[in-house]
């Protein structure tokens, strides 16, 4: 390799500290615009109307049966992770697993300090959830919705025999236009998060997000987005920086 040349011509150009600072300050203005836009979007999200939950959902946990109200653990807000775990599977979804692996006890403690509980719900029977939870060394609350319609009502399980197909606010026809084959392999487990507010014993659904919406929760992707190589996935620009392009599947297995 010639002196002064980089091992990869697709790396960022090399400039003086002064030139780098000028480019960085230009980008900083755009980052500030994005931060302010995100603040405005968060305000709009908080101003969304809400829907009262009238169904008596039942979930099985390690210590028995629970109502949706019980999952709040006395706090005012509840965040539910829809963790993909089909009853026929022996292990949970690798991508959901990768996301949970990044959680710390500190996250739960900080949410609790803001009157918010984070719970995980899957359709697999509780025995499988407990086994997988112990295998991974996890300690968070995990509940089975196997005997309820919860997963179907919140579009985390797609099965036309139970409910009309909808995912990420798209109908079956709209999903097919995106290339998503919803005809094969039903029921289909899908990822997402749903958010609830409690007023006394009344429960309200305030928000749900699916697909790449989960990236708003941060984690490894948002750390990687700040690096020169990025996520190293095939859709990113500029091309050619990663020595080995990684899968866009967020399981971090390759």
Would you kindly provide a written description of the structure presented here, covering whatever features stand out?
- The protein contains 8 helices and 12 strands.
- By secondary structure, it is of the alpha+beta class.
- The strands form 4 sheets. A 6-stranded mixed β-sheet has the order 1-12-11-4-5-6.
- The two termini are 29 Å apart.
- The chain has helices at 17-46, 68-71, 94-101, 105-113, 126-136, 150-153, 172-177, 220-224; strands spanning 51-52, 58-61, 64-67, 77-82, 116-122, 142-144, 157-158, 166-167, 170-171, 188-189, 192-199, 202-210.
- The model has no long low-confidence stretch (mean pLDDT 92).
How would the blueprint of this fold be written?
Elements: H1 17-46, E1 51-52, E2 58-61, E3 64-67, H2 68-71, E4 77-82, H3 94-101, H4 105-113, E5 116-122, H5 126-136, E6 142-144, H6 150-153, E7 157-158, E8 166-167, E9 170-171, H7 172-177, E10 188-189, E11 192-199, E12 202-210, H8 220-224
Parallel strand pairs: 4-5, 5-6
Antiparallel strand pairs: 1-12, 2-3, 4-11, 7-10, 8-9, 11-12
Task: Give me some keywords for this one.
single chain; 254 residues; alpha+beta; 6-stranded mixed sheet; two-stranded antiparallel ribbon; 8 helices; 30% helix; globular
Number of strands: 12
**Terminal residue distance:** 29 Å
What global shape is seen?
globular
How big a fraction of the residues is strand? Answer: 15-25%
Order of helices and strands: HEEEHEHHEHEHEEEHEEEH
* Low-pLDDT windows of residues: none
Question: Taking Cα atoms only, what radius of gyration do you get, to the nearest Å?
Answer: 22 Å
| Helix-residue proportion | 25-40%
Number of distinct helices:
8
Strand order of the largest sheet: 1-12-11-4-5-6
Q: What profile does the largest beta sheet have?
A: 6 strands, mixed
* Sheet/helix structural class: alpha+beta
- Average pLDDT level: 92
